[in-house]
Design brief:
The protein is of the alpha/beta class. It is built from ten helices and ten strands. It has a six-stranded parallel beta sheet, with helices on both faces. It has a four-stranded antiparallel beta sheet with strand order 8-7-9-10, with helices on one face. The mean pLDDT is about 95. The structure holds adenosine monophosphate. The site of adenosine monophosphate (AMP) has 17 residues, from α2 and β5.
Length: about 280
Protein backbone atom coordinates (compact mmCIF):
# COMPACT_ATOMS: atom_id res chain seq x y z
CA UNK A 1 0.00 0.00 0.00
CA UNK A 2 1.28 3.44 -0.92
CA UNK A 3 0.62 6.28 1.54
CA UNK A 4 0.32 9.70 -0.09
CA UNK A 5 -0.13 12.94 1.83
CA UNK A 6 0.03 15.56 -0.93
CA UNK A 7 -2.77 16.15 -3.44
CA UNK A 8 -0.46 16.82 -6.45
CA UNK A 9 1.44 13.56 -5.81
CA UNK A 10 -1.80 11.60 -5.67
CA UNK A 11 -3.12 13.28 -8.83
CA UNK A 12 0.13 12.52 -10.60
CA UNK A 13 0.07 8.86 -9.54
CA UNK A 14 -3.58 8.40 -10.50
CA UNK A 15 -3.16 10.11 -13.88
CA UNK A 16 -0.51 7.54 -14.73
CA UNK A 17 -2.85 4.72 -13.69
CA UNK A 18 -5.69 6.16 -15.76
CA UNK A 19 -3.40 6.39 -18.81
CA UNK A 20 -2.96 2.62 -18.42
CA UNK A 21 -6.75 2.26 -18.52
CA UNK A 22 -7.15 1.49 -14.80
CA UNK A 23 -10.55 2.04 -13.17
CA UNK A 24 -10.35 3.80 -9.78
CA UNK A 25 -12.59 3.16 -6.77
CA UNK A 26 -12.64 5.59 -3.86
CA UNK A 27 -13.62 5.13 -0.20
CA UNK A 28 -13.57 8.39 1.82
CA UNK A 29 -13.42 7.92 5.61
CA UNK A 30 -12.65 9.76 8.83
CA UNK A 31 -10.56 6.88 10.19
CA UNK A 32 -11.03 4.74 13.33
CA UNK A 33 -11.67 1.99 10.82
CA UNK A 34 -13.84 -1.05 11.52
CA UNK A 35 -15.18 -3.95 9.40
CA UNK A 36 -17.92 -1.65 7.99
CA UNK A 37 -15.29 0.56 6.36
CA UNK A 38 -13.34 -2.50 5.23
CA UNK A 39 -16.43 -3.92 3.49
CA UNK A 40 -16.47 -0.78 1.31
CA UNK A 41 -12.79 -1.24 0.51
CA UNK A 42 -13.29 -4.92 -0.35
CA UNK A 43 -16.23 -4.07 -2.61
CA UNK A 44 -14.11 -1.50 -4.44
CA UNK A 45 -11.25 -3.99 -4.77
CA UNK A 46 -13.66 -6.45 -6.45
CA UNK A 47 -15.09 -3.91 -8.87
CA UNK A 48 -12.14 -1.66 -9.78
CA UNK A 49 -8.40 -1.87 -10.55
CA UNK A 50 -7.10 0.67 -8.01
CA UNK A 51 -8.70 1.35 -4.62
CA UNK A 52 -7.96 4.64 -2.91
CA UNK A 53 -9.00 5.15 0.72
CA UNK A 54 -8.79 8.58 2.32
CA UNK A 55 -8.62 9.29 6.03
CA UNK A 56 -9.40 12.88 6.98
CA UNK A 57 -11.15 13.96 10.16
CA UNK A 58 -13.13 16.76 8.57
CA UNK A 59 -13.64 19.56 11.11
CA UNK A 60 -16.25 21.24 8.89
CA UNK A 61 -18.79 18.50 9.43
CA UNK A 62 -18.73 18.67 13.22
CA UNK A 63 -21.11 21.11 14.77
CA UNK A 64 -19.67 20.60 18.24
CA UNK A 65 -16.01 21.14 19.10
CA UNK A 66 -16.27 18.52 21.87
CA UNK A 67 -17.62 15.92 19.42
CA UNK A 68 -14.66 16.61 17.12
CA UNK A 69 -12.15 16.39 19.99
CA UNK A 70 -13.67 13.13 21.23
CA UNK A 71 -13.84 11.47 17.81
CA UNK A 72 -11.68 8.31 18.01
CA UNK A 73 -8.36 8.38 16.16
CA UNK A 74 -6.49 5.10 15.60
CA UNK A 75 -4.27 5.92 12.63
CA UNK A 76 -1.61 3.26 13.22
CA UNK A 77 -4.18 0.49 13.47
CA UNK A 78 -6.00 1.91 10.43
CA UNK A 79 -2.83 1.72 8.33
CA UNK A 80 -2.29 -1.88 9.42
CA UNK A 81 -5.89 -2.89 8.60
CA UNK A 82 -5.79 -1.23 5.18
CA UNK A 83 -2.46 -2.77 4.23
CA UNK A 84 -3.61 -6.21 5.45
CA UNK A 85 -6.48 -6.17 2.95
CA UNK A 86 -4.14 -4.85 0.24
CA UNK A 87 -5.58 -1.42 -0.29
CA UNK A 88 -3.68 0.21 -3.15
CA UNK A 89 -3.45 3.80 -1.93
CA UNK A 90 -4.10 5.54 1.37
CA UNK A 91 -4.55 9.29 0.96
CA UNK A 92 -3.77 11.05 4.24
CA UNK A 93 -4.15 14.79 3.71
CA UNK A 94 -3.81 17.30 6.52
CA UNK A 95 -6.07 20.32 6.87
CA UNK A 96 -3.79 22.53 4.75
CA UNK A 97 -3.86 19.98 1.93
CA UNK A 98 -7.65 19.71 2.05
CA UNK A 99 -8.37 23.40 2.50
CA UNK A 100 -5.24 25.26 1.27
CA UNK A 101 -4.57 28.53 3.11
CA UNK A 102 -7.81 28.02 4.95
CA UNK A 103 -9.52 28.83 1.67
CA UNK A 104 -12.77 27.12 2.55
CA UNK A 105 -14.98 28.51 -0.13
CA UNK A 106 -18.01 30.55 0.69
CA UNK A 107 -19.83 28.12 -1.55
CA UNK A 108 -23.22 26.93 -0.34
CA UNK A 109 -24.35 23.71 -1.94
CA UNK A 110 -27.95 23.54 -3.09
CA UNK A 111 -28.99 20.16 -1.79
CA UNK A 112 -32.68 20.58 -2.54
CA UNK A 113 -33.69 20.35 1.12
CA UNK A 114 -32.28 16.85 1.67
CA UNK A 115 -29.72 18.46 4.00
CA UNK A 116 -32.21 20.15 6.31
CA UNK A 117 -34.34 17.20 7.52
CA UNK A 118 -33.39 14.51 10.08
CA UNK A 119 -29.59 14.79 10.59
CA UNK A 120 -29.60 18.21 8.93
CA UNK A 121 -32.18 19.50 11.39
CA UNK A 122 -30.26 18.35 14.46
CA UNK A 123 -26.78 19.03 13.07
CA UNK A 124 -27.07 22.36 11.21
CA UNK A 125 -24.29 22.82 8.65
CA UNK A 126 -23.20 19.19 8.93
CA UNK A 127 -24.00 18.22 5.34
CA UNK A 128 -22.55 21.44 3.91
CA UNK A 129 -19.32 20.47 5.73
CA UNK A 130 -19.51 16.94 4.29
CA UNK A 131 -19.94 18.44 0.79
CA UNK A 132 -16.90 20.72 1.13
CA UNK A 133 -14.71 17.72 2.00
CA UNK A 134 -16.18 15.32 -0.56
CA UNK A 135 -16.07 17.96 -3.32
CA UNK A 136 -12.38 18.58 -2.64
CA UNK A 137 -11.62 14.86 -2.48
CA UNK A 138 -13.48 14.19 -5.73
CA UNK A 139 -11.50 16.98 -7.41
CA UNK A 140 -8.25 15.36 -6.29
CA UNK A 141 -9.06 11.67 -6.79
CA UNK A 142 -11.46 11.86 -9.77
CA UNK A 143 -12.63 8.30 -9.12
CA UNK A 144 -14.78 6.24 -11.45
CA UNK A 145 -16.71 4.74 -8.52
CA UNK A 146 -17.43 6.16 -5.07
CA UNK A 147 -18.30 3.68 -2.30
CA UNK A 148 -20.55 4.92 0.51
CA UNK A 149 -22.14 3.08 3.44
CA UNK A 150 -25.91 2.87 3.78
CA UNK A 151 -25.32 3.32 7.50
CA UNK A 152 -25.25 7.04 6.61
CA UNK A 153 -28.35 6.87 4.46
CA UNK A 154 -29.01 10.60 4.29
CA UNK A 155 -25.36 11.26 3.46
CA UNK A 156 -25.72 9.13 0.32
CA UNK A 157 -28.70 11.25 -0.79
CA UNK A 158 -26.69 14.42 -0.11
CA UNK A 159 -23.61 13.20 -1.99
CA UNK A 160 -25.74 12.12 -4.97
CA UNK A 161 -27.06 15.69 -5.13
CA UNK A 162 -23.52 17.09 -4.77
CA UNK A 163 -22.21 14.87 -7.58
CA UNK A 164 -25.00 16.10 -9.86
CA UNK A 165 -24.40 19.73 -8.91
CA UNK A 166 -20.67 19.67 -9.58
CA UNK A 167 -21.16 17.63 -12.78
CA UNK A 168 -18.92 14.78 -11.64
CA UNK A 169 -19.22 11.60 -13.73
CA UNK A 170 -18.51 9.40 -10.67
CA UNK A 171 -20.84 6.46 -10.01
CA UNK A 172 -22.12 6.41 -6.42
CA UNK A 173 -22.30 2.88 -5.04
CA UNK A 174 -24.19 2.30 -1.76
CA UNK A 175 -22.92 -0.58 0.40
CA UNK A 176 -25.08 -2.30 3.03
CA UNK A 177 -24.55 -1.67 6.75
CA UNK A 178 -22.21 -4.00 8.67
CA UNK A 179 -23.52 -4.84 12.12
CA UNK A 180 -22.24 -6.40 15.35
CA UNK A 181 -23.64 -9.84 16.24
CA UNK A 182 -26.39 -8.18 18.35
CA UNK A 183 -27.43 -5.89 15.49
CA UNK A 184 -25.70 -2.65 16.51
CA UNK A 185 -24.51 -0.83 13.37
CA UNK A 186 -20.72 -0.67 13.37
CA UNK A 187 -19.48 2.88 13.88
CA UNK A 188 -16.24 4.57 14.86
CA UNK A 189 -18.22 6.17 17.68
CA UNK A 190 -18.91 2.72 19.19
CA UNK A 191 -15.33 2.86 20.50
CA UNK A 192 -16.58 5.44 22.99
CA UNK A 193 -19.25 3.10 24.41
CA UNK A 194 -18.66 1.12 27.61
CA UNK A 195 -19.43 -2.63 27.47
CA UNK A 196 -22.79 -1.99 29.14
CA UNK A 197 -23.65 0.90 26.79
CA UNK A 198 -22.75 -1.22 23.78
CA UNK A 199 -25.05 -4.00 24.96
CA UNK A 200 -27.89 -1.52 25.51
CA UNK A 201 -27.25 0.18 22.16
CA UNK A 202 -28.24 -3.00 20.29
CA UNK A 203 -31.83 -2.14 21.32
CA UNK A 204 -31.78 0.50 18.54
CA UNK A 205 -31.62 -2.13 15.80
CA UNK A 206 -34.04 -4.39 17.69
CA UNK A 207 -36.69 -1.63 17.72
CA UNK A 208 -36.16 -0.88 14.01
CA UNK A 209 -36.65 -4.59 13.32
CA UNK A 210 -39.70 -4.65 15.61
CA UNK A 211 -41.33 -1.94 13.47
CA UNK A 212 -40.29 -3.60 10.22
CA UNK A 213 -41.62 -7.06 11.08
CA UNK A 214 -44.83 -6.12 12.93
CA UNK A 215 -46.12 -3.17 10.93
CA UNK A 216 -48.87 -4.95 9.03
CA UNK A 217 -52.23 -3.38 9.96
CA UNK A 218 -50.60 -0.96 12.45
CA UNK A 219 -49.97 2.77 12.33
CA UNK A 220 -46.42 4.17 12.34
CA UNK A 221 -47.33 6.63 15.12
CA UNK A 222 -48.41 3.82 17.43
CA UNK A 223 -45.35 1.68 16.71
CA UNK A 224 -43.02 4.65 17.05
CA UNK A 225 -44.40 5.42 20.54
CA UNK A 226 -43.89 1.80 21.63
CA UNK A 227 -40.37 1.66 20.17
CA UNK A 228 -39.39 4.93 21.88
CA UNK A 229 -40.82 3.69 25.19
CA UNK A 230 -38.68 0.53 24.97
CA UNK A 231 -35.59 2.49 23.99
CA UNK A 232 -36.14 4.90 26.87
CA UNK A 233 -36.50 1.94 29.24
CA UNK A 234 -33.10 0.73 28.01
CA UNK A 235 -31.64 4.12 28.96
CA UNK A 236 -31.47 5.36 25.36
CA UNK A 237 -32.41 8.94 24.63
CA UNK A 238 -34.08 9.12 21.20
CA UNK A 239 -33.49 12.36 19.26
CA UNK A 240 -35.69 11.31 16.36
CA UNK A 241 -37.25 8.15 14.99
CA UNK A 242 -38.94 8.82 11.68
CA UNK A 243 -40.27 7.21 8.55
CA UNK A 244 -39.44 8.45 5.05
CA UNK A 245 -39.60 7.51 1.39
CA UNK A 246 -36.49 5.50 0.62
CA UNK A 247 -36.00 7.14 -2.74
CA UNK A 248 -35.78 10.78 -1.67
CA UNK A 249 -36.09 10.80 2.15
CA UNK A 250 -39.36 12.77 2.03
CA UNK A 251 -40.86 12.34 5.53
CA UNK A 252 -43.93 10.09 5.80
CA UNK A 253 -46.61 10.30 8.50
CA UNK A 254 -47.60 6.65 8.04
CA UNK A 255 -46.69 3.49 6.17
CA UNK A 256 -47.47 3.41 2.48
CA UNK A 257 -47.32 0.16 0.65
CA UNK A 258 -46.71 1.47 -2.88
CA UNK A 259 -43.03 2.28 -2.60
CA UNK A 260 -39.97 1.45 -0.48
CA UNK A 261 -39.63 3.25 2.85
CA UNK A 262 -36.83 3.76 5.35
CA UNK A 263 -36.85 4.05 9.12
CA UNK A 264 -34.27 6.54 10.33
CA UNK A 265 -33.12 7.11 13.90
CA UNK A 266 -30.66 9.14 15.97
CA UNK A 267 -30.26 8.42 19.67
CA UNK A 268 -27.90 9.02 22.57
CA UNK A 269 -26.46 6.13 24.52
CA UNK A 270 -24.77 7.90 27.39
CA UNK A 271 -22.91 10.78 25.75
CA UNK A 272 -22.50 9.04 22.41
CA UNK A 273 -24.84 9.96 19.57
CA UNK A 274 -25.58 7.04 17.26
CA UNK A 275 -27.52 6.89 13.99
CA UNK A 276 -29.04 3.97 12.16
CA UNK A 277 -31.67 3.20 9.53
CA UNK A 278 -33.53 0.26 8.08
CA UNK A 279 -35.13 -0.16 4.68
CA UNK A 280 -38.70 -1.43 4.72
P1 LIG B 1 -16.95 7.63 8.35
O1 LIG B 1 -15.53 7.28 8.62
O2 LIG B 1 -17.86 7.43 9.52
O3 LIG B 1 -17.09 8.95 7.66
O4 LIG B 1 -17.45 6.55 7.29
C1 LIG B 1 -16.80 6.38 6.05
C2 LIG B 1 -17.68 5.53 5.17
O5 LIG B 1 -17.91 4.26 5.78
C3 LIG B 1 -19.06 6.16 4.94
O6 LIG B 1 -19.46 5.95 3.60
C4 LIG B 1 -19.93 5.37 5.90
O7 LIG B 1 -21.28 5.33 5.52
C5 LIG B 1 -19.29 3.99 5.83
N1 LIG B 1 -19.66 3.21 7.00
C6 LIG B 1 -19.59 3.58 8.30
N2 LIG B 1 -20.07 2.62 9.11
C7 LIG B 1 -20.46 1.60 8.30
C8 LIG B 1 -21.06 0.31 8.52
N3 LIG B 1 -21.36 -0.11 9.74
N4 LIG B 1 -21.32 -0.46 7.44
C9 LIG B 1 -21.03 -0.03 6.19
N5 LIG B 1 -20.46 1.16 5.91
C10 LIG B 1 -20.20 1.96 6.95
Amino acid sequence: MIIIKQAPSLKNYLNKQREKGKICGFVPTMGALHPGHLSLVNRSKKETDITIVSIFLNPLQFNSQTDLEQYPQTIEKDILLLSEIETDVLFLPDRQEMYPDNSISEKVYDLAGVDTTFEGRFRPGHFQGVCHAVNRLLDIVEPDKLYLGQKDYQQIMVIKKLVKQIGSPVEVIPVSTKREAGGLAMSSRNLRLSADEKRRASEIYKQLMYIKTNRSGRSFGDMKDKAIARLTAAGIDVEYLELAQAEDLKPLADFIEESPMVLIIAAYVGEVRLIDNLLL
